[in-house]
Amino acid sequence: NSPFLISNTIKRIYPILSSITGVDCIYVMQDGEIVESGTHNELIERNGIFARMWKNYSEAAEWKIAKEVTA
Predict the structure, then answer these.
(1) pLDDT band at 64, cuts 50/70/90?
(2) Which has more confidence, 16 or 12?
(3) Which 8-state DSSP code applies to residue 32?
(4) Phi, psi values for residue 42, rounded to 5°
(5) What is the H or E stretch that residue 54 is in?
(6) Nearest residue to 22 via CA among 37, 5, 40
(7) How many Cβ atoms sit within 10 Å of the Cβ of residue 17?
């Protein structure tokens, strides 16, 4: 299986975050260096860059759904 690369400097990666939750290994890059790696759950538990990206993505998805429901 090929790992996915995620750079926290590329904000447009957010729309595909939900599609990588089941991969064997996610690599998180910052300033051209791999700073975190692991499964989705491992990275969430570490509460680092990936966890912050996931939190932002989740909050944005919830906001969009809530906005559409109330519109």
Answers:
(1) low
(2) 16
(3) T
(4) -60, -45
(5) helix 49-70
(6) 40
(7) 19
Q: Which amino acid is at 67?
A: K
Q: What is the CB-side half-sphere exposure of residue 4 using CA atoms within 13 A?
A: 17
Using DSSP's 3-state secondary structure scheme, residue 43 falls into: helix
Cα-Cα-Cα-Cα dihedral of 37, 39, 42, 46, to 10°?
30
pLDDT of res. 8: 46
Pick from 2, 50, 12: nearest CA to 29: 50
* CA gap 35, 25 in Å, rounded: 13
Q: What is the pLDDT of residues 21-53, one digit of tens each?
A: 888 888 888 888 889 999 999 999 999 999 998
Identify whether the C-beta of residue 36 lies closer than 8 Å to the C-beta of residue 28: yes
